[in-house]
Amino acid sequence: MKRISFEKTLKRLGKKVKVLGWVHSIRDHKNFVFLDLRDEKDWILQIVLKKELAEGINLEDVIEIEGEVVKRPEGMVNPKIETGEIEIKGEKIRFLARAKTLPFDLKNVNLSLPEYLNWFPLVLKNEKIKAIFKIQEKIVEGFRETSKKLGFFEFQSPIICAFASEGGADVFKVDYFSKEAFLVQSPQLYKQILVSSFGKVFCVTKAFRAEPSLTSRHLCEFISLDCEIGFIETLEELLSICEKIIKGIIKKLEREAKKELELLKVKLPQLPKKIPKIKLFEAGKKFFNQENIEDLDPEKEQKISRFFKEKENSDFVFVTHFPTLKRPFYTLPDPKNPQYSLSFDLLFDGLEIVSGSLRIHKFENLLESLKKRNLDPKNFQYYLLAFKYGMPPHGGFGLGLERLTKQILKLKNIREATLFVRDLKRVDLPLKERQKNEID
Question: 228, 201 in Cβ contact below 8 A?
Answer without folding.
Answer: yes
